[in-house]
Specification:
By secondary structure, the chain is mostly helical. The protein contains 6 helices and no strands.
């Protein structure tokens, strides 16, 4: 009986450890219908506005991305999704966006750019 309990304990610990190998961002960062204010703005504020802030159009040809309208325009008509997802050239001055954040940007686009 002791061997069975020991084996069961080892299996349960192994399962618990394997379940914890994912980050919170990977397992809990996705929202089905994201909004700009709650989900998208924080991403752009933390990873894009270092360069793409209002009034910084002369430094290397950066486009301004600072509010709902400019962010939506950048995602809808610009190269934002290509730059962060396909060719990985953005953001230049911050860590790359996680897969969960990129997925969130696509969800925002696919659900109609909720404010």
């Amino acid at each position: 009986m002791k061997k069975f309990k020991l084996l069961l304990g080892i299996v349960l610990v192994g399962i618990a450890i394997s379940c914890q190998s994912n980050t919170y961002d990977e397992i809990g960062g996705f929202v089905a219908v994201p909004s700009y204010a709650k989900n998208i703005k924080p991403i752009f504020d933390s990873q894009c506005t270092t360069c793409h802030y209002q009034g910084n159009t002369s430094q290397g040809g950066y486009i301004e991305i600072f509010d709902y309208a400019t962010t939506r325009e950048s995602v809808e008509f610009g190269r934002t999704l290509r730059d962060v997802d396909t060719i990985h050239t953005m953001p230049k001055s911050a860590a790359p966006l996680t897969k969960a954040k990129i997925k969130l940007l696509y969800a925002w686009k696919d659900t109609g750019y909720q404010p």
